[in-house]
Amino acid sequence: QVRLVESGGGLVQPGGSLRLSCVASGPIIFSINGYDTNWYRQTPGRQQELVAGFAADGNIDYADSVSGRFTISRNDGENTVHLQMNSLKPEDTAVYFCNIRAGHRYDYWGRGTQVTVSS
User: Fold this and answer.
1) Is the Cβ–Cβ distance between 82 and 73 less than 8 Å?
2) Shortest CA distance to 21 belongs to which of 119, 107, 110?
3) Per-residue pLDDT reduced to its tens digit, 57-109
4) In the sheet where 70-75 sits, what is the strand order?
5) Residue 65 per-residue DSSP state
6) pLDDT of residue 46
């Protein structure tokens, strides 16, 4: 079974930075190579939002709300996905989830890490 574990969340002041990490593990020969990798976020009462995506073909997309402030990266050899978040704003407060997906059949999620931006 594939497992995703996020880390790096926490409390930060507005204007600060955090780096989220996601480590994927699975069967001995498992690799995120070939998977699209994504970071989503969820706040109470709001729809889940796709924050950033790094597709298997190398295409990268960001939500307009984070473009220019967040950077997604991946290391297929280490089965890791990162989200560097700079110039954080209170509205970035959310639970952030790591997701990897290959078609409709293979869709895996982490349990999330809380990010709180507050003074």
Assistant:
1) yes
2) 110
3) 999 999 999 999 999 999 999 999 999 999 999 999 999 999 999 988 999 99
4) 3-7, 18-25, 80-85, 70-75
5) T
6) 86
pLDDT of residue 30: 86
Report how far residue 18's alpha carbon sits from residue 15's, in angstroms, rounded to the nearest whole number.
10
| Kind plus residue range of the DSSP H or E element containing 53 | strand 49-54
User: How far is residue 79's CA from residue 98's CA, in Å, rounded to a whole number?
Assistant: 12
Q: Are 69 and 7 in contact (CB under 8 A)?
A: no
Structure tokens, 94: 């959310």
Token couple for 30:
């498992």
Residue ranges of alpha helices (H) inside the chain are none
Least confident window among 2-6, 10-14, 26-30, 52-56: 26-30
Q: What is the pLDDT of residues 23-52, one digit of tens each?
A: 999 887 889 999 999 999 999 888 899 999
Q: How far is residue 62's CA from residue 71's CA, in Å, rounded to a whole number?
A: 8
Please give the Cα distance from 64 to 52 (Å, whole number): 10
